[in-house]
Specification:
There is one protein chain. This protein is α/β, with parallel strands linked by helices. The chain contains eleven helices and 15 strands. Strands 1-2-3-4-5-6-7-14 form an eight-stranded parallel beta barrel, surrounded by six helices. Strands 8-9-10 form a three-stranded antiparallel beta sheet, with no helix packed on it. Helix 1 runs parallel beside helix 2 and helix 3 packs across helix 4. The two termini are about 25 Å apart.
Length: about 350
């Protein structure tokens, strides 16, 4: 088995060229990004890259010794396969360092036509066991797998101990109840699939309406939250809306919160995690820069002396106002269920 790295890569989101440059300057080892089409699970209006921007972004990163990972992480439409094939070809032609893929048809095309192109298994593929990862490694030659955010820390350790594939885990960012990109709730409300519509709440379906009781947030006409004057407002998603249940209005499904694994960073490094991913290609460049700076310092500190590592209160304070609902959690990493 190949020795595990002693220091994981910091992989940061880039929804725009500006975000890419700020992430690189703030210390990201790699950025991940996508094209402006259905091949990208964050096909959000106003974000993402065309060929020229991708070329410039890759050149910017490579001049500084960093990597660009391109997300082709949606499940392809069988009647429009040329779109996904074209995206694979573009990644190879423009010099992306790896493709992040979920669909076996896309993997097969990449392996056949661009065997030199490194493949990472997307979290969208939902591979939660070393056997599943080995299947993708054996048949499609994947070299890294991004683990879904449903595994406990001990389960992550088990995958690492049985796999020869580089393993990437999420370190910071929003959580939700969907199974990695496939949300029945938002599809029910909007009629669009989060797989390739870009987001679970497409902006075209979101409406803010001022009324005597406050500001209503509606998704395709459905009232999913109501905010009092001066109350902080998050981007409206169905799973994090507040609803009347048994006479009380509260978060019926999930409270807004962000995953934050700073507290277990030395353990992740000791287990041999190859990369730490920051969620948030839909976030602002300023958000990306701030989160990247904190995680750069934390990873360097933990890798240099894991036994004396302590979470710097300044890091926690810096991330607190960027977290959804200003709340942090270790999520499934510390949950007792299996």
């Amino acid at each position: 088995m190949t020795p595990r790295p002693s220091k994981p890569e910091l992989v940061c989101p880039a929804g725009s060229l500006r975000a890419l440059k700020l992430a690189i300057d703030a210390g990201a080892d790699a950025v991940y990004l996508g094209l402006r089409n259905a091949t990208n699970a964050r096909n959000f209006a106003g974000l993402n890259f065309d060929d020229e921007q991708l070329r410039e972004g890759i050149a910017y990163a490579h001049r500084r010794g960093r990597k660009v990972l391109m997300a082709l992480n949606t499940f392809a439409d069988g009647e429009r396969m040329a779109t996904w094939h074209g995206a694979v070809d573009a990644a190879a032609r423009l010099g992306a360092d790896a493709l992040i893929v979920a669909d076996v048809a896309v993997m097969a095309y990449a392996r056949e036509h661009h065997p030199e192109l490194r493949l990472h298994l997307s979290v969208q593929a939902s591979a939660t066991s070393h056997e599943a990862i080995a299947f993708y490694q054996r048949h499609y030659g994947i070299q890294r797998a991004v683990l879904p955010r449903v595994l406990t820390l001990s389960q992550v350790a088990s995958v690492l101990s049985h796999s020869t594939v580089d393993i990437e885990v999420f370190g910071f960012g929003s959580l939700c109840v969907m199974v990695e990109g496939r949300c029945a709730l938002s599809s029910y409300a909007t009629g669009q699939s989060p797989n390739n519509a870009g987001v679970c709440s497409p902006p075209s379906a979101v409406r803010w309406q001022e009324g005597p009781e406050g500001t209503d947030a509606r998704l395709n006409g459905l009232l999913i939250d109501r905010y009092a004057p001066h109350e902080p407002r998050g981007y409206p998603t169905l799973c994090k809306g507040r609803f009347d249940v048994n006479g009380a209005r509260d978060y019926a499904l999930e409270e807004p919160t962000s995953l934050n694994t700073l507290a277990i960073l030395p353990e992740l490094i000791r287990m041999g995690v190859g990369a730490i991913k920051i969620e948030g290609r839909q976030r602002s460049p300023a958000y990306v820069e701030q989160v990247t700076r904190v995680w750069r310092q934390a990873i360097d500190s933990a890798a240099a002396d894991p036994h004396r590592f302590r979470v710097d209160p300044a890091w926690t304070a810096g991330l607190a106002h960027l977290a959804e609902g200003q709340q942090h959690t270790l999520g499934a990493f510390e949950r007792p269920w299996r």
